Each structure stands twice: as structure tokens, then as C-alpha cells.
Amino acid sequence: MSQRNTDVSAQLNALTGCAPDAVTPFTPGQARACTVREVLDRVGGKWSIGILVAASQGPVRFTELERQIEGISRRMLTLTLRNLERDGLLERRVHPTVPPKVEYTATPIALELYESLVALTSWAERHRGAIAAARQTYDREHTTP
């Protein structure tokens, strides 16, 4: 790991209170702080943002999410939905029909997060061209001929 990555990791550990390795014991406050990192990892995950934005619009079915979220596999959608439900961000409702109808709805805490997620996705949309150009410039400057 580079010195810069080590510094960033140390800063994140200091901010979250997470121990730098598995050997160092956690105090109760540190365990709670690490949960903050886990929550940020979950809601900032590759697929979570799209799912939460979709579910914040109202009840959404598995197949609707599968169609809306480009590139997600059925397995990854299932795992992400399960994790978001476990974290209290989604509510899963099974309707007693044949076949069973399953809908996912954003919980109040997910709805509170919604504006931030929309702002983040809007930012990404506005700046994706600039980021793509910066990557091309970087790659051109750092590629050996």
C-alpha cells in the first residue's frame, strides 16, 4: 500500500473510530463508529443507490428493478435487496397471490436519504463527461509508449 493510501486509511480510521487491524480491540464507541462506515458502504454501493431511488418513488417489484438497473444480475439484485432490507432501508411485502407478488418500498429512513442520493446521482450525471476526459488525459500521460 502506498504512503498516500496509508494516510487516507489512517484518516478514515480516525474519523470513524475504527481500529486499523483486526487485532486491536474495539471500545463500545468504536464499534458504533464502524457501523457508520458499514452504512456508508452499503448506501454508497454500486447498486444500492439505484435501488433506493427507485423504491423511494413508491412500491417497486423485483422485475421492475431488474429492468431499471442496467447491468445488475439477478443474484446481485437479490443480495442487495436483502442487505438493504436488513439495514432497515427497504420494506419487503409479499402479497398472497399465485405467483406471490413481492414489492419493495423505501422506509422512512431511506426516504430521508433520498434527496442526498438524487443530489449525488445528479452530480455524477453533470460531471461524467469531465471525469471521462480527465481519465483519458491521465491514461495518455501515464501510459508508456
From TrEMBL:
Boundaries of every HTH hxlR-type domain copy: 34-132
UniProt keyword terms in alphabetical order: DNA-binding, Transcription, Transcription regulation
Pfam families per record: HxlR
Transmembrane stretches, start-end: none
Keyword Ribonucleoprotein: no
UniProt key word DNA-binding: yes
Domain of life: Bacteria
One term of GO molecular function: DNA binding
Protein name: Transcriptional regulator
Source organism: Micromonospora costi
